[in-house]
Amino acid sequence: MGLTQSRPEVYPGDIVEYPRNKYFSHFAVYYGEKDGVPYVAHLTCRDSDSKMILFGRALRSEIKLDPLELLGKNYKVNNMMDGCFSVRDFHSVVKPAIDELMGREVTFDILFHNSEHQATLLRYGVKKSQQIERIYKHIMPSWKKLFEQKKL
């Protein structure tokens, strides 16, 4: 029938969302093309040498540049806070920030510093996670004692 799958139009600085399951997605910031290949910058914990799976934390995570479709072919543009916050200029603010962060160690923490936090911090200068806010009321009671004992 001549139907082809269309991809969302992506511009430098856009937040790209890769749905993972019913509750969580992985987020990245579109970086642009290098040698004709589109790239995204994202916070990754896949190469971390110290993971605490139970608490959703990975030490020594980092910001990486990977081809757009390496993270998944199912993605969408989700600039979720464009109506609330002004978008920072990609070429003068966001791209230099990504370049500076690359290779530096970051603690990936599902509650306090995850890929959505990193993407909104780069795009808007605000660290916010809508997916965490939706499930926080379910997570916090199970972790409250551990927070109080400073085990998290």
UniProtKB/TrEMBL annotation:
The entry's keywords: Hydrolase, Lipid metabolism, Transferase
Gene3D superfamilies, A to Z: endopeptidase domain like (from Nostoc punctiforme)
Matches recorded under Pfam families: LRAT
UniProt xrefs under InterPro entries: H-rev107_PLA/AT, LRAT_dom
GO MF term list: N-acyltransferase activity; phospholipase A1 activity; phospholipase A2 activity
GO cellular component: cytoplasm
BP-aspect Gene Ontology terms: N-acylphosphatidylethanolamine metabolic process
All residue ranges annotated as the LRAT domain in the record: 16-131
Protein family (similarity comment): Belongs to the H-rev107 family.
Alphabetized PANTHER family for the sequence: HRAS-LIKE SUPPRESSOR - RELATED, HYPOTHETICAL LOC794087
Record-given protein name: LRAT domain-containing protein
Biological classification of the source: Eukaryota, Metazoa, Chordata, Craniata, Vertebrata
